[in-house]
Every structure is written in C-alpha cells, then in structure tokens.
Amino acid sequence: MIGRAVANEFAKMRRLRVVPVAAAMTVGVVALSCYALAAPGFPESVDDPAERPWQWLLGSMALAVLLVSPVLLAVLASRQVDIEHRGGGWLLSQTSGLTPGALCRAKFAASGAVVVAATLAQSGLVAAIGGLAGITVTFPVGQWLGYTASAVVVNLVLFALHLWLAARTANQLVGLGAGVLGVFAAVSGTGMSTGVAHFLPPWGYYALSVPVDVREAGVVSLDPPYLSVAALGVAGGALFLFATRLFDRREV
User: Fold this and answer.
1) What residue ranges are annotated as transmembrane (predicted)?
2) What's the rounded Cα separation, in Å, for the pair 156 and 119?
C-alpha cells in the first residue's frame, strides 16, 4: 500500500511543479555561493593553500543554504499538500484505505527524495564551479562531505515540519510565513553560541553545521557537532512519525 502511495506521489509531482521549485532552491544556493568567487583577493588565492579558497567557498555555500532553504522548503511542502485540501484528497485516500497520516508519510518519502537530490546537487555544483574557477589546492573531501550530510539532515527535518504544518492547516500562508520567519531564525543562529543554537531546532542547526568561520586571521575550520545533527535527524523522524499517527485521528 505505501509503495503504491509513494509511486502515486511521484506521479502527482508532474503537475505540481515540484521539480522547478527544487531547481530554484539549487540555483539560488549555487548563485549566492558564487559571490565568494567575486570577493576581493579571491582570484589570487586559488593557488595558495594558506588562503584556504575551498573553505571560503564552503562557508559561502553554508550561508546560502540557510538563506534559501527555509522558504523554498515551505513552498515545496505547500505544493505537495494544498492539492489534498482543495480536491478532497484526504477523504479520497482514506476511502481507499490510506489514512491521512500514511499519506503524509508517503509524501515525505517521495518529496524527501527530491530534497536530498537538490541538496546533493547544490554541493556538487558548487564544488564543480570552484574547480572551474581555478582552485588548485587540495579539495577538503571530509569537510565538504560532512557539511553536505548535515545539510541533508537539517533540510529533511525542516521539510517534515513544513509538511506536517501544511497538512494540519488549510491556509498555506501559515506555512509560507513560517518559512520566512525560519530564515530570520536560521540567520540569528549564526550569531548565537553553540549551546544556545542547540535549543533552536531545526533552524539553529543550519548554523551548527557551518564548518568554517571568518576571523581576523582569515578563514578557520570549526568542529561542527555532527552527533547533535544526527540526533536532530533521529528526533525529527520520531516526532514526524508520532505526529502523523496522531493525524490519523482527525476527521476528514
């Protein structure tokens, strides 16, 4: 049943413009990340390991992700759910044996795959652009992959939150407003201490995932709390499962 529901959600995406929204998220992150390439002195630093050009680019991408993702993830969740509110899809799916909570989980499985693909595409494209820009110093594979994995986890948890909110509220402006506020929360997290940012899930975890910082001495590497990000993923998944099971009790 769930397998057919997930396949059905992929079929619905053809009319819901899910791919253009995911593409917009990818292009937005890549475009903002490329501002680092135009920074004063960056072209002269591409061959100097001491200037850490890859870390400059990685930090720029991390900032772009927290600026772009909250709003477009809210839009993506809204696109997936609004059709059910408008077309009586909740009742139709329930009469066919698929509860509202199970439908939400199917939507997350299908759309979550798109979110993961978009996040990986962002990371890969920014790395490719860095290579095309002429960066010749050693590529920080571990650091880059660590941040990419963290971004995938935080994006999925935030998407699950917006998907649940869109399913619970017929007025999709609520979710979109939450997405705009999420940008401010994510940006605010960059100015908080690590301990405080832990208490602003999931938006604060964008800041926790940032692997570099710019200081007077230049770009320095940080030690992101990957275990905390992993714990966010586990807790977010458990809460989404619990919330969607409660969603089965609503009257449609």
Assistant:
1) 21-42, 54-76, 113-138, 144-166, 173-200, 226-247
2) 10
- The answer for residues whose C-beta is within 8 angstroms of residue 161's C-beta and 6 or more apart is 202, 236, 240
Largest CA distance in the chain: 64
Q: In the beta sheet, which residues pair with residue 221?
A: 212
Q: Is 170 helix (H, G, I), strand (E, B) or coil?
A: coil
The H-or-E segment that residue 6 falls in is helix 2-16
Q: pTM for the complete prediction?
A: 0.94
- DSSP H or E stretch at residue 220: strand 218-221
Q: Which residues contact 90 (CB under 8 A, 6 or more apart)?
A: 84, 100, 103, 252
Kindly report the number of other CB atoms within 10 A of residue 175's CB atom.
Answer: 24
Q: Is 192 helix (H, G, I), strand (E, B) or coil?
A: coil
State pLDDT tens for residues 210-219. Answer: 999 877 667 8
Spell out the residues 6+ positions from residue 30 whose beta carbon is closer than 8 angstroms to its own: 64, 122, 125, 126, 129
How confident is the model over 53-90, as pLDDT tens digits? 999 999 999 999 999 999 999 999 998 998 888 777 77
